[in-house]
Amino acid sequence: RIKICGLTNFLDAKNAYDAGAFYGGLNFWPKSKRYVTKAEAESIKKVPLMWGGVFVDQPLAEVKEIACDLNLDFVQLHGQESERYIKELRAEIDCEIWQAIRIKGLNKAQKSFYADKVLLDTYCDIEPGGTGKSFAWEKHSDEFSASIVAGGVNESNVAKLAQYFPFAIDICSGVESENPRKKSLAKIHGIFDSLRLKSKRT
Fold first, then answer.
1. Angle between helices 60-69 and 83-92 (to 10 degrees)
2. 44: Cα within 13 Å, side-chain hemisphere
3. What is the residue-averaged pLDDT of the chain?
4. How deeply is 103 buried, as exposed, middle or buried, from its count of CB atoms within 10 A (0-12, 13-18, 19+)?
5. pLDDT interval class at 155 (50, 70, 90)
6. Alpha carbon separation from 103 to 24, 117, 125, 139 (Å, rounded)
7. Are 1 and 25 in contact (CB under 8 A)?
8. 89 has pLDDT over 70
9. How far apart are CA 169 and CA 171, in angstroms?
């Protein structure tokens, strides 16, 4: 399963869906270069992907409102949300909760009891995600079967990551043009071409 994250317009979302993406990500963190409003998200979400919203340490009421109003399939918590926060959110929404854990060195992911899935991303002390940098996949592959893996995935390395059989692969900057708000159709196709080539070889 491929997730294309940071979608900001209908055409990019349709291109991702037509190419074979399963999940789509909408970024509701106002400081993100890929931020979308709820109104923009309503238009983008007309594409029939499984949709999730990215949030970073935002008020619980705000996350609940957006998740419910847009009928999201999952929310992706990409900040330092506490166990109590996730527990309270779990009681307020019906969709899945994906907890992003940023990998630094050999530290193992510690999933919240109340999260449905873990998204493993690369640690960065400046940005909470979308940095285009990957972590040492081979050293954490024992965690991949139930995890979404993100961080520096692009057409040149996605086939290698797929060999570790993660639950899903999350791609953001790896399919962008020079503008972070615009996806490259060629790069999106490159992801799926790489995966098809890999499947023919195995």
1. 30
2. 30
3. 92
4. buried
5. very high
6. 22, 15, 11, 11
7. no
8. yes
9. 7
HSE-up of residue 200 (Cα within 13 Å, Cβ side):
6
Residues in contact with 47: Cβ distance below 8 Å, sequence separation at least 6, in sequence order? 10, 13, 14, 16, 17, 24
Give the predicted TM-score (pTM) of the model: 0.91
DSSP for 105-174 reads TTPPP---TT-SEEEEEE--SS-SS--S----GGGTGGGGGGEEE-SS--TTTHHHHHTT--SEEEESGG
Question: Which whole number is the average pLDDT over 111-120?
Answer: 94
In what helix (H) or strand (E) does residue 62 lie, and over which residues does it extend?
A: helix 60-69
Report pLDDT for 92.
97
At residue 117, what is the residue type? K
Instruction: Give helix then strand counts, H and E, for the chain.
Output: 6, 8
Residue-level pLDDT at 128: 61
Which whole-number Å values give the CA distances from 76 to 27, 163, 177, 194, 198, in the listed order?
Answer: 9, 25, 24, 27, 29
